[in-house]
Amino acid sequence: MNETHAAKNGVAAESWRDRLTRWRYDYWPDHVLGEILAKRWMETAIPVTVLLIVAFVLSEAIPNFLSAASLADTGRQAGEIGFIVLGMALVMIVGGIDLSVGSMFALTNFCALFLMHVLKWPVAAAIPVTLIFGAMLGAVNGILIGIFRLRAFLTTLITLIIYRALYELLTADYATAIAGGMPDSEMWDFIGYGEWAGIPVVVYVYAAIAIMGHILLTRLRPGWHITAIGGSRRSAYNSGIAVRRTVTMCYVSSGVLTAIGGIFFASRLATAGGDIGVGLEVTVLTAAVLGGISLGGGKGSVMKALVGTLIVLLIINGLTTMSLDGGYNRMVLGAILLLAAAIDIRWLKNKHRIVNKVYVSPTYHALPPAPSTAADCGTPWAINDRLRPATAIGLGRIEGPEDVILDRNDNLYAGSRHGDIVRFLAPDYEKMEIFAHIGGTPLGMAFDRNDNLYVCIGGMGLYRVTPERKVEKVTDETNRSYSSVNDDSRLRLADDLDITDDGLIFFSEATVRFEMHEWATDGLEARGNGRIICYDTNTGTTNTVIRNLKFPNGVCIASDGKSFLFAETWGCTVKRYWFDGPKKGKTEIVLDNLPGFPDNINNSSDGNYWMSLVGMRCPALDLAWRMPGFRTRMAKRVPRDEWLFPNINTGCVLKFNENGDVLETLWDMGGKNHPMITSMREHRGYLYLGGIMNNRIGRIKLDNVDTSFVQYDKRWGKS
Amino acid sequence: MTAAAASKNISQQTIVFAIFVLMFISFSIFLKGFFSAGNLLGLLQNVAILGILGLAMAVVVIGRGIDISMVAVLAVPAGLMLQLAQEGYPLSMALLAAVVIALVFGLINGWLIAFAEIPSLFTTLASGLFLAGLGQVAFFRLDVVQWSTSLDPISWMGRGTLLGVPMPVIMFAVVAVLVAFFLKKTRLGAFVYAVGDNPIGARTTGIPTRPLIVLQYVIAALIGAFAGMVMAASVNSMPTRIFNSTLIYDVILVVVLGGIGLSGGRGGVINVIIGTALIGTLLNGMTILDISYSAQNLIKGIILLVAILIDSFLNPRNEETAQQGDI
After folding, report:
1. How many other CB atoms are there within 10 angstroms of residue A629's CB atom?
2. Are residues B294 and A330, on separate chains, in Cβ contact within 8 Å?
3. CA B124 to CA B104: how far, in whole Å?
């Protein structure tokens, strides 16, 4: 306890400079920037910014530009073009392009007008027929490109010419008839000019279809297929997606959506002039690309299509309103498009680099000088040779047994890097078998009352292996915290666990910001990124108990059954948390300012606790932890493999009690035989040692201990 | 094309050539006045500009790009030259201005594509719009800029005949030879193929791919401007509203139908000539038949569709070999 007090004094004596640094890093959330930038919706950030700037500039330059009437008009046009952009977006996401939209628009416009004005059909018949007509036009493209595998660019270029020629031939014959025969249909006029609450009908229809499209692309199987094909046609084909049919359907959809635009246009303007839809493909393509839908396929969303449509439309309308020469129109449009596209593309390309640079955000972490572990220091920390005689089990046959555990029949279990739970059979532990294959990286383990083996799997969550060797997922998510930018509901790095008498499973998740293999980067940050989570086997619910822990690692239920001990690896502390009883919800420090990084904690036969130190602190990292700016610069400027790295080559096993006294330590001085330890279990007079970097399980005989001690029996009683 | 390849795979080039021959023969037999020296020369003259533009496009497409701004390049530099001459500037000055603006435009296009990494389709779409607008706003007074007599020293580019062949056709031939020489006989030409075939591979082997892409667009712009001058000389004016037409689609069709794949790295000048011949024959035959412009487009489109459809049956692409982003 003396050490603990000394440690607290050491922290209290911090200088003003350190205190300011600490405040700076305690209260300024550096990590949020990287997390926001890493969000997928940031891809749309640039187009949205452009949209806002365009809207602002135009509303400043043109009086009444954003008036209700003007907006309603913009809304009508946006709806009409918006449908076509949606179709184009779909085709572009699947990896194609549809240049024929302008001509299809003209033809479907003609079709609707012809049915309404010349043939005098009712609206209810004219609209479906026009939609089917649009679908057929799209199907021509779709069949040629999807089924006959023609090139999209060339094919739609040709259909552009063919459809345009058809339109010209048709209007030559029927333009006068269309102009002469206005249909007498309120429904038709309502489609063209109707409003609800000041908002044109077309906007409602567009909103409905856009929402449907969004759901399709993000939530439904066909939408995922579309994105998959666009992302990698070959992989999509090889994984059994109906590539041809899906591609065809995208072009058909483009035709239908264009027809919807055509219907609204026809009902509003009732004209079949020669220049309808000429160059529309350019506008639509521009809108799609400006919105951020990439030409290569696989990237895009409804939101992007909408933003792109609005930008293009505002620019065109603004320029028209300013009634400048057509040449200015062209110049400004061209220049804005190039500028926006250049920024957008640079942004998309470099986003992950920026994220990489700013994601790692070290914070201030001060520890007092570590207690000495010199052989002549006179404390229990004094380094010794007690681990030297460790014998090896499964040498060279197992990789990375982070935790080891023994069942009531003395069989030995360990996880492995390959995602297996390996079992060594008693009594000699020579025979090895794969007990279960789970995947991921099995870490901490614990048996429950009914011989189920619970395992924390790095990268997957909490799993259970029944005595019949059946693997079951227990939980892989917890409640999402509202203040977190990253979605922290999924478990990234479940680490160690223990089970209470009432069937509560407390397990640690080391970090919510990094993946398993990036654990060292989390150490570089030294922020409280980890948490302790509780899974209730009675209700099947998971919820987070403690947040903001510095790499919580080992968990062990304390002797009173109402609290548990847990180690914080980067915090170099062991704490005790009460989940029940009079001290419920309280956390107390048990061990402070450890000379190394604590890992798993387990019971010892004499009622105390074993704990491993996975590695020892060193003055360089201690100093760097007090210098967040230094570590930030390192993360930005130095390649990842040359960053500071916590030492995990050598450690020790120690025994401590609930009062925070270190009773004894076991070392392998010089690291000759078994220096790397992440876990240990005492069993019938022996200590079994696991190590995440080891190719064996260590075993040493303990002197003067209860040789009948079996953790399973002590925990759950003899069966 | 080698005999072995021909027996195994009939390429698009061969199909298009066969269609061309078929059409040429049937027109010659059934169309009165088609197979006469006068008509055939007229046919060539009509498609010479298209052919020159096709050559410019070919250089870019072989390097895995596309240049939609070509019609603007056709109209604006030549139009500027005519406008300056009209306003009394000397010939050298007008010519220099035209060349400089084409050069600068090509450099900007190339820079945006190679260094800013905007897709070529989109870059040239927007830059073409910009150039056309610039011409309209800053350069031209009227939609049609007339030829002035001060330019007559260079009117040979588009007027008159050499050995009975109209000058535009001669110019087409000259540009074709130059482009063929560049592509097949120079190191830079070989690099263009390398970049088009496999840009990343080309870069890995040390080819300066970005400057090379810039070069492609500069060449395309210069050839495009040259085509504009030939056109201005032959029709005695520059109708600047030409960039509202669908000429650019014809140019792309000439190139692609001839057999230069849009995925780059394939084809050459011969493909452009074949493509131009097919389009020329088609247009000429239909004009003789007195088919309306719209119906001509319709027929043209359907024939083109059939051509690429046959190609896709003879040379099917499968999912395994299809290139990503190959649209």
Report:
1. 12
2. no
3. 14
Question: What is the per-residue burial (b if ≥16 Cβ within 10 Å, else e) of B254-279?
Answer: bbbbbbbbbbbbbbbbbbbbbbbbbb
Q: What is the pLDDT of residues A270-309, one digit of tens each?
A: 887 778 887 788 888 888 888 888 777 888 889 999 998 9
How far is residue A120 CA from its own chain's centroid?
A: 55
Strand partners, A575: A566, A589
Q: Does A339 touch chain B (CB under 8 A)?
A: no
In a domain, B73, yes or no: yes
**CATH number reported for the structural domain that contains residue B102 in this entry:** 1.10.3470
Residue type, A428: D
For residue B299, is it within any domain?
Answer: yes
Say how many domains are in chain B: 1
What fold, for A71-313?
ABC transporter involved in vitamin B12 uptake, BtuC (1.10.3470)
Nearest-neighbour CA in chain B from A58: distance (Å): 20
- Alpha-carbon separation of residue A676 from A391, A556, A616, A661, B173 (angstroms): 14, 21, 11, 23, 78
pLDDT tens by residue, A62-115: 777 777 777 777 778 888 889 999 999 999 999 888 989 999 999 999 999 998
Contacts of B327 in chain A (CB under 8 A): 95-97, 151-153, 295, 297
Contact A597, A613 (CB under 8 A): yes
Closest partner residue to A161 among B116, B119, B246, by Cβ?
A: B246
Look up residue B1 and give its two tokens.
Answer: 């094309």
Cβ atoms of A615 and A373 within 8 Å: the answer is: no
| CATH number attached to the domain at A391-479+486-716 | 2.120.10.30
ipTM attached to this prediction: 0.79
Q: To the nearest whole angstrom, how far is the Cα of B153 from the nearest Cα of chain A?
A: 31
Chain pair A-B, CB pairs under 8 angstroms: 163
> B177-227: per-residue pLDDT in tens?
999 999 999 999 999 999 888 888 888 999 999 999 999 999 999 999 999
Q: Does a structural domain hold residue B166?
A: yes
User: Which of A107, A156, A158, A235 to probe the B interface (max B CBs under 10 A)?
Assistant: A158
Residues 482-541 of A with CB under 8 A from B: none
Collect all residues of chain A within an 8 Å Cβ-Cβ radius of residue B130: 330-331, 334-335, 338
Chain B positions in Cβ-Cβ contact with residue A161 (cut-off 8 Å): 246, 249, 297-298, 300-301, 304
Cβ atoms < 10 Å from Cβ of A370: 18
Q: Which residues of A touch B138 (CB under 8 A)?
A: 327
* Residue B288, in any domain of the structure: yes
pLDDT score for B327? 58
Q: Is A149 on the interface with B (CB under 8 A)?
A: yes
Going by C-alpha positions, the residue among A138, A129, A143 that lies closest to residue A103 is: A138
CB contact under 8 A, B130 and A161: no
